[in-house]
Design brief:
Strand order of the largest sheet of chain B: 1-10-9-4-5-6
Mean pLDDT of chain A: 88
Strand content of chain B: 25-35%
Order of helices and strands of chain A: HEEEEEEEEEE
Mean pLDDT of chain B: 90
Oligomer: heterodimer
Number of helices of chain A: 1
Helix content of chain B: 25-40%
Order of helices and strands of chain B: HEEEEHHEHEHEEEEH
Number of strands of chain A: 10
Largest sheet of chain A: 10 strands, mixed
Number of helices of chain B: 6
Low-confidence stretches of chain A: 6-13, 139-144
Strand content of chain A: over 45%
Shape of chain B: globular
């Protein structure tokens, strides 16, 4: 029994332990930039790091953060990586961290779907499919 | 003596209350700034020359300033304007226009703005996306207190200049007389508040 458990641990795919939830991208025009959003769940015992992403329909892909620059101004900056501690989750969402898809090679219209590869230090490459919409997630539509 | 002091206090309080009411302390809106004294020239999404704010005179205008290369805050703001528009009662929709002005006119040409709107299915009978020269753009930014700081300029391998813009996150409400009445943080605005303000102006 112990041997079986040991083998399962050795041969289990690390990416099973990192899950990408609800990926979606915002519509965007050819030549412009848009954002890709999703939630990362790290169920493993080790911290993991998202350090790169690739998208065939974008000339350039970077991990970005939208930040409050003060005086009602907002800015955006590249971040090298996002670290997700073990047994925790991290959400890339509008107005916050996102994967920036730049120099789009074609229009991304509502309903379009694209395959994105996310690169993690522990889990390796994770392929996801993201659907395009303009709509933000419900919780971003603020009601006070 | 005590009665005189109490009377004096009541009189003073009443005077202050009247003064507050007369000066508009209880006005529904925090702003009342006439932005229609001067006009600025822009091109709409069909490359037709228009004057702003004359363009929406007599209508309630919900507007913002954006750049279309923005992947996050600007589309959040225009999306919020779209949601506000969808929440408006049908009977007042005709009284409301939506205006988007680019503070990056060198890249945001009329055709670029048209594409931006088409991807989001905006109704061009009610939405106007405007691009102008630097001078007109800066004048409107000054009127609306919108700031844009160009950063991270770089040339890519193909020689194309790319840059980012740190900018004011703003949605503005202008009444039928060209007076700025309220500003909201565009990307996270309380949409119900904006709808209520528009309904108030439409009465």
């Amino acid at each position: 029994m112990n041997l079986l458990i040991a083998l399962l641990i050795i041969f289990s795919n690390p990416s099973d332990k990192v899950k990408i939830i609800d990926p979606w991208m915002r519509v965007g025009a050819e030549g412009k930039a848009t954002g890709l959003f999703f939630k990362i769940e790290n169920n493993s015992d080790k911290a993991d790091t998202l350090f790169k992403a690739e998208f065939d329909l974008a000339g350039k892909v970077e991990i970005h953060e939208t930040y409050d620059a003060g005086n009602d101004m907002m800015g955006m900056r590249e971040v090298e990586m996002i670290v997700i501690p073990s047994k925790s989750s991290f959400e890339l969402k509008p107005g916050s961290f996102h994967v920036m898809l730049m120099k789009l090679k074609q229009d991304i219209k509502k309903g379009d779907e694209g395959e994105v590869i996310l690169f993690f230090k522990q889990a390796g490459e994770i392929k996801i499919k993201a659907k395009a919409k303009e709509m933000m997630m419900k919780k971003m539509e603020h009601k006070h | 003596m005590k009665i005189i002091i109490i009377k004096y206090f009541i009189l003073t309080f009443t005077l202050f209350l009247n003064l507050a009411l007369l000066t508009g302390c209880y006005d529904h809106f925090p702003l009342d700034q006439d932005i229609s004294r001067t006009q600025n020239t822009f091109f709409n999404q069909d490359s037709v020359e228009v004057e702003f704010p004359e363009l929406t005179k007599g209508k309630i205008t919900l507007m913002t300033m954006v750049f279309t290369h923005c992947p996050d805050i600007c589309p959040m703001t225009t999306h919020n304007m779209h949601l506000v528009d969808q929440k408006l009662p049908d009977k007042i929709k005709d009284d409301v226009k939506l205006v988007v002005i680019s503070f990056d006119p060198n890249r945001d040409t009329p055709s670029v703005l048209r594409k931006y709107a088409e991807l989001r299915e905006y109704d061009f009978n009610r939405w106007f996306l405007l691009s102008g020269d630097d001078q007109n753009t800066k004048e409107v930014m000054l009127k609306l207190d919108v700031k844009a700081i160009f950063t991270d300029s770089t040339y890519s391998d193909d020689g194309e200049l790319s840059y980012n813009i740190i900018h004011t996150d703003r949605m503005a409400l202008i009444d039928q007389n060209g007076r700025l009445r309220n500003n909201y943080k565009g990307s996270v605005a309380n949409l119900d508040e904006v709808v209520e303000d528009i309904e108030y102006l439409s009465k």
